[in-house]
# Entry
Amino acid sequence: MSETPSNTLQYRFDGPEEAPVLILGPSLGTTWHMWDRQVPELAQHWRVFRYDLPGHGGAPAHPGGSVGDVTARLLATLDGLGVQRFGYAGCAFGGAVGIELALRHPERLASLALIAASPRFGTADEFRQRGVIVRTNGLDPIARSSPDRWFTGGFAAAQPAITEWAVQMVRTTDPGCYIAACEALAAFDVRHELGHVGVPTLVLVGSEDQVTGPAEARTLVAGIPDARLAVVPGASHLVPVEQPAAVTDLLVRHFTTAWQPAPDATGQTVLPGVPGKPVLAAAPQTAPVAEIAPAVAQPQAAQGRPDPYEAGLKVRREVLGDAHVDRVLADADDFAGDFQELLTRYAWGEVWNRPGLDRRTRSCVTLAALIAGGHAEEIAPHLRAALRNGLTPAEIKEVLLQTAVYCGIPAADRAFRIAQQVVREETTPSE
# Structure
């Protein structure tokens, strides 16, 4: 166990101190206890390191803003412990951390296992919608539906104690940290970078996983140069819990045979000293090769302000959602295309992207202006945007009441009727 500053993670070790380190990364909404059934066997071969995501399992509630941020905290924790090189197995969110390690910190990673993982987890809209639900209703709706996402129906019915454990695990997670993790997954997309993963990789998935299933697993295998696929029959998303023996066996075999030694000081590969056992060589003494600078010529940027279009498109998607933006841009023909480009570049790239107001405040101002101007057709998408930007239904109600005083009862009445429908749609958990 550990005391946890804001830049590190809560962790525990199991296994002999002299053994090479193997890290087990958890899924969103779980704790390190999801790996309990794997540890006895793995700890015979490795020094097993488990960690909790921020706000999970009683860990301090310091939200992680991105997968990269959580990865940086993991590395800071390992640096403090003197762990320089390790094997890594991660489930779902933990798998995203594993990919991040392989892409950004390859010198630290000996071998990798990705479980129930994906180069892009669903859509950004789906995860931001989940954040809206948690912000409005708390974690109870997510907790009650977790067994349906994590386990097959037969397992959930036969194992009521494990099912209840799963529900309670989510309920005790800090809501703000859960929402931040959803935002992190919404922004995670490494589909075009998989070819840069340079360590032996096992991609493991449950055959019945409806969250990140075999299709996502095959995308990983197709993109990662040295990757193998293992499909575990009769298992859903939380496959280490549902099929612990199969997962343990696959991990032992992978990390025993595919552990990638580090080069020694001469640049030569250090071979394992004991057949069949993973040997972790010392990390290279030389600094890792620096990244190649981007090919885009920089002097041009100094000639004037950068084009705000791409930044505007990013903000527009984050605020209004991919589905809405895709639909609007698809409907824009040659006649309307220039106008949509103007909106993206100036409304979103210039004004919405200014640092002077946060997005919650900008949503309040936008709603009031739309109601005052009688632009009812634009109210619904900006109500959804306000929920994504962190406003609660109670706060939106206060904004609409304020407009009733200053913009008129009829305008506010129409806005309230639109808001009732939008809030109901956006904050009702799906069955």
